[in-house]
Amino acid sequence: GATEGFSQMTAAMKAHLRRNSMKTYDIQEPRFTCFASAWLSKFVTKHPIVANRLRWWVGIFLVLPFPFSAPAQPDACSLGWQLTSSDSPFGDFHTWYLIGQASAYDSRRHVPVVFGGLLVDPNGRNVPFDSGTWEWNGTQWEEPLHFVEPPPRSDAAMAYDDARGVCVLFGGHLNNLAFNDTYEWDGSKWIFRQAFDPTATDRPPPTAHPVMAYDSARRLTVLVENVSGKTWEWDGAIWSSHPTTPPSRIHSAMVYDPIRQVTVLFGGQSDVPPYNFLNDTQTWDGRNWTQVSTGGPAPRYDHAMAYDSHRKVIVLFGGTASDVIDDQLGDTWEWDGQSWAPQLDAGRFGLGPREGSTMWYDAVQQRLMVFGGGRYLPVGGGVYKGNFPNDVWEARPPGYWVDFNAPGLPGFPETGYFNEPFNTLAEAVTSANAGCTLNLKAGSRAETITISKPLTLEAFFGPATIGQ
Questions:
Q1: What span, in angstroms and rounded, lies between the C-alpha atoms of 117 and 374?
Q2: Average pLDDT score over residue span 343-365
Q3: Of the candidates 88, 262, 303, 417, which lies 20 to 30 Å from 324 by C-alpha distance?
């Protein structure tokens, strides 16, 4: 279902375009037998151990009236991206693909918002700048009815201010013209905040490729640009500047970590010779930028990041490793506030290398989502074919899933993944490696089992109880 476009850009041209922003429960018994039952979606107040998130380190030996073995399958105990939609909603004929879009996640209405970018038809003949506003309803993209919107642009920055309930949009470019205007989207209309004024000193300068993140502790939107050497913050009425910034760069990624209360920036490409690709991790606490790591993911640019509030980690995906036109990356990493850890099996369902994706975290469904982006493939003679599908991928919390209400009948596959869950705890226990997480979705069931390997049990949306 992917829409393919074609590009005849050389590596040198792509490098030039990049630099000029024009690119296209803890029970420590060795063994015990328990009668296990789980009730989900209701709070059982008489049990003090009931909580929204339960962890027990337990070991499990099955005591069953029949032999049981789980089918061979990929390990669900690690993060994995799965295709959710290959919908292509953009353009008059729903066949065009979108690149260079700005995006943010509206946590009040629980929808991601996408604005602008470049629309490219399947043959690469037309590349109009877009001014469309799109929202993902969980299954498909929709364009809300509205009558006024910002001018068309690509590579703008957008972040969601959850105190005021608006998506803040800044900058970007239309051809060679960079913007420094500010708009806000309240879910039904665009609100004009500050005009484009290239001579103004009370706002960031015109910037083609800024990055933004919302600091929920200080209730400020943080912006990093590569023109003035300053860090800017928006309070909903005015921009204020700080005379410090990380080393100048373009096409980095930045998100806010609410647990550690710092804004985290990673990577990008230096915009001064020799235009090195970067892999430093920088944090902003409202006063100072601190380089906290230069290891982990390889240097890259045009990657995607989001904060997973369930597991309390920042997740990074993809990007481009060099000026070689087809040097896109498909790896996934997690930052826990101390170090980066690779998620080696994350692409096992088909999410491959790509640049220019956007990522958000859906707290209601407890899933990370990746939208769009793409890669270039050589077709010979210095010609490259660009494949930029408008697809959506999701990554649920790692581990095997159990839904006691699932049919468990022929025709209903049970792989232990979110959409094909086991309907007994015993199946999940047998399938899981030591240290894995078992995610309980819904229902209740009585099972007699003996436990002997370390596992973590978690309840999906609400409490769970186990034992009598």
A1: 14
A2: 95
A3: 88
